[in-house]
Amino acid sequence: MKRIAFYIAFFALLVAAFCIGASAQIYEGRALDEVYIHNNSHASEGYRETIELAAYYDVQYQLDTETGVLRIFCGETNPQKMLPYADGDWVPWTKYYLRPYIKTVIIEEGILSVGMFSFYQCENLETVYLPSSLLRVDQTSFYECPKLTKIHYAGNESDFGKYVEFQDKRNSYTGGAVERKAIDLVSFGESVTVHCKNQDGETFRTYKVGGFSAGESFHIVPPTMEGLTYVGKKSEINGVFAVAEAREYVFEYICPHVYEQKEELQFCSQFCIYCGCCDPEYEDEHAWSVKKDVPRGLFRDGELKKTCMVCGLERRQRDFAYIWTIGMIASVAVIGTAVFCAIFFPVRKKIRIKRLTW
Ligand SMILES: [Zn+2]
Ligand SMILES: [Zn+2]
Known about the structure:
alpha/beta, four-stranded parallel sheet, binds zinc ion
């Protein structure tokens, strides 16, 4: 009898585990509904311009239904605006079956604007992270989000006032009888920088999560990316922000590296379709143009930026302060002297011993 009960319990547990596993799903793609755009390609004049714009649109989204995190990104080297979604049907994540999952929205560094109706009626949306690259928030972006309580901006208040045009029209949410403006929910402060690295140590994605004030807690989960396997030790990072603290985290991934040639006849333009890194086989084909962004000093490191004139690949590297070069030369001299002494002194000792025993 006991055994049967055990089997039943075990089976139930297995089913439960399967259900939890199956319910976690990731939706991702270009941040516009391709089907809708395709079906409306003969749309009225008003839409035509935006449809043409959509053809070049490279903003991506990723919604994890388990964590409730929606990420919107385009990469820092390719800054883009979100589309002004003229119609709710343009937005893939505001579909009735996806909208309820959204709790947190992370708009990554590189995105220049938050489009119209982007989060219209996201009934469970609580927190939004805005990047410091932001220049505009369109009207109606946060229209009717009753649970929205925090909008973190990854920068300070004066930058926000200077660079961000926050349109007020219908950018409010109704929480019961009170209607509040989204702009009043914006908080400023420190941000956490996340670097995603592949097994070759190359950073293929950097973004900031920010707008934390002192004492506020943060929670960071490594992003899931197509083709890449997360191999870092921690599955999440929780912390509390101290005053004027800049935090950086590195998430490690393994990439199977599948290279594809972007431009015909340009051999060095072989990029990995997953992490975007370059094929090392063609490393010597790049035609680098080196620029020193920040020149190095005696004690201060500089930054070197090189761009390939053929494929447009950009690489940044540290240009170490002169003190390190001086230090290197000095230590080589010290080691050299030490080796020299080690070779000659024991000989003298032996001679002395010989003399004593004589
Ligand atoms: Zn790769
Ligand atoms: Zn190149």
